[in-house]
Amino acid sequence: MTDYVASLLAEVKAKNPVEPEFHQAVQEVAESLALVLDRHPEYRHAKILERIIEPERVLMFRVPWQDDRGEVHVNRGFRIEMNSAIGPYKGGLRLHPSVNLGILKFLAFEQVFKNSLTTLPMGGGKGGSDFDPKGKSDNEVMRFCQSFMSELFRHIGPNTDVPAGDIGVGGREIGFLFGQYKRLRNEFTGVLTGKGLNWGGSLIRPEATGYGCVYFAQEMLATRGQTLEGKVCLVSGSGNVAQYTVEKLLHFGAKPVTLSDSNGYVYDEHGVDAERLAFVMELKNVRRGRIQEYADKFKTATYTPIDPKGDHNPLWDHKADCAFPSATQNEINGKDAANLLRNGVYVVGEGANMPTTIDGVNQFLDAKILYGPGKAANAGGVATSGLEMAQNSMRYGWTREEVDNRLHLIMKSIHKACVETAERFGTPGNYVNGANIAGFLKVADAMLDQGLV
Ligand code: NDP
Fold first, then answer.
1. Closest residue CA from atom 35 of ligand 1
2. Which domains does the chain carry?
3. In what order do the strands lie in the sheet with 347-349?
């Protein structure tokens, strides 16, 4: 670690205590950027990185709501408006009991670089609440979303800040949020993405993060003259990203063998085929049940509970070629990374944001496997949100093929930018440096152009 990075990190930790995920995200980026800042003193002089680390604005607000029995609950709502140098703030809303300021700041910080990589004009933001949608009725979720939007609506807009989904926020929640925004503002605009198809949504948006992640893995494999055909794949999570990762893996002839939720995981030696994926989609998106039911239904599968306090996650301890972490941050620690490498995994495509700890990342980089960090590999979701914004502005909708082709081209272009940038800065094959540096340069130059704001 250079002196500059070390002193920057010390300052970030002192100024933002109790935000370990934010420190981790900043450290990873700062280490990559040391290569750029040496060559470009103008960025250091203008304190570009220091400015990117400090959110332009942080909103924190009370979200009171009533459950079906009439009991009152109070949650905390957030929106981090991180950086608007290249476009309106853009990034998802997360509803999960673990949500806090530090987690949302790490996500907003990563989003700045990711959005820059997509080639589309979007700044970075993130938001959410510590509300837990699990076990809540549709009416309770609606009342929560309406209360959340009753404050958020003053701060967002189609040219200011355009939220989307993330963990715990899918089509149902976006619908409730959009309805309340429209009611309060009396306008129908593309203020949120991930909307329903008959009220401004884009085809392929639900599929985009998972599909994009698999397209990225395909590009990485192509650099070694290989394809996904026949590859055994470990997938974590069973939500939006995991489901469409599995769908696209099947399309390319790969064999996904695991899925999980926060209670445990299933390993299916038969493979999660189209019929079994349809079962998971109904289980998770309609019945909102637990992944354990998969093993009750399909006898080739075994279910293993996951102990969150354990020192490793057994999901990552199976023989495989590829891994697609698609649940949450830090789900692959150093021990998990070692297990993956020992089991023969040589392709990692991060559908989730920052799913690998710094120790794990370093092991992947040292082993020189094809490691696609989340900023690049899961950028297809926000890229397609950008395409949804473009369609909303035109008041026109593209076909499924048109959006999918654009998504595919964007993922190829992100891959190319990572490869070329990593090479240009002397670390060929290092997608972490490639993504961090390529994402940074566009934002940094825009900030220099726009003066000290
Ligand atoms: P969903 O809410 O649809 O699914 C999340 C899945 O991960 C569920 O299976 C959930 O299990 C599991 N999970 C969540 N939190 C934890 C936890 N603390 N420990 C173990 N498992 C957990 O979310 P998405 O699929 O949308 O998001 C998954 C990841 O992908 C997140 O990191 C998100 O930031 C990232 N991402 C999402 C994008 C999108 O377009 N949706 C875009 C880019 C990145 P359970 O049901 O038990 O909670």
1. 352
2. 3-188 (3.40.50.10860), 208-372 (3.40.50.720)
3. 255-256, 232-235, 322-324, 347-349, 370-372
